[in-house]
Amino acid sequence: VHFLRVASDGTILTADWELSAGDASGARPSVVWRSREFSVAYVESGGLYVAAIDPTGSMVLDRSTVTTTGGGAPALSRPGGFGVAWAAPPDYRVRLAVRDATGRSFGTIVDLPSVGTATGVDLVRAGTELGVSYQALSARDVGTHLIRVGIDGRLRWVSGSSAIALGYAPYGTTALAHDGRRYAVAFTEGTSGAESVMFRLAGCPGAPP
After folding, report:
1. CA 45, CA 70: separation in Å to the nearest integer?
2. Using an 8 Å Cβ cutoff, are 173 and 187 in contact?
3. The model's pTM
4. 143-160 burial, b if ≥16 CB within 10 A, otherwise e?
5. How many CB atoms sit inside 10 A of residue 3's CB?
6. 140, β-bridge pairs
7. Can you tell me the distance from the alpha carbon of 121 to that of 161, in angstroms, rounded to the nearest whole number?
8. Per-residue pLDDT at 209
9. 3-state class of 26 per DSSP?
10. I need a labelling partner for 36 at 20 to 30 A (CA). Which of 54, 70, 140, 168 fits?
11. 3-49 pLDDT per residue, tens
12. Are 121 and 174 a contacting pair, CB within 8 Å?
């Protein structure tokens, strides 16, 4: 996993440098801006880590360990704390860890009530809560799903066995956003080699106004 800074016109500002080495499971890192620094989440040798990097590209602190059992590593950043969500082996259920406002300390890892074998996890901040999207690959629960959880880690709403969309793709992915009233999900659908990108809005009971 490498880190590189690029200006808005495409000019490379700093040479890329290596955060982790030689681990194929690190193929899906995630980076977000946290007011004064970048946070980069990535997997290396089965562990999930977060590194803090300042605007000049210098490491702020040594990497933090989220868990030693890794998985996909989408991340979220907002002033007031941020979270990391991933599908963790061996059962590939969705898990969530929320950091405090300093970004230096993780709370307890929360096992979210995901269904089936999860893939393509994404995470977004929506006011006082976090939205988590993923695709379930098991036959009974197949489809694209959504979970809403408070910043305190308490569950607010879950799609459960009723997927918000029946579409999915083998090893598919989701991308989640919130417009202030509802969630929007983009996701892959189809068979391997013939996937389409789909989009839908998801209004949820009790969602932030």
Report:
1. 8
2. yes
3. 0.82
4. bbbbbbbebebeebebbe
5. 18
6. none
7. 17
8. 42
9. helix
10. 70
11. 888 888 888 887 777 777 665 555 578 888 877 788 888 888 778 88
12. yes
Token digits of residue 39 = 């946070």
- Picking from 123, 118, 144, the residue whose alpha carbon sits closest to that of residue 39 is 123
User: In sequence order, which residues have a C-beta less than 8 Å from that of residue 148 and are 6 or more positions away?
Assistant: 126, 129, 130, 131, 132, 155, 156, 157, 158, 204, 206, 207
Virtual torsion, Cα 158, 164, 170, 171, nearest 10 deg: -50
**106, 66 contact by CB (below 8 A):** yes
Tell me, what's the pLDDT at 79?
Answer: 47
Q: Decide: 40 and 3 in contact? Cβ < 8 Å.
A: yes
Sign for the pseudo-dihedral over CA of 57, 71, 154, 127: positive
Q: Rounded to an integer, what distance in angstroms lies between the CA atom of residue 147 and that of residue 127?
A: 15
Distance CA 95, CA 112 (A): 6
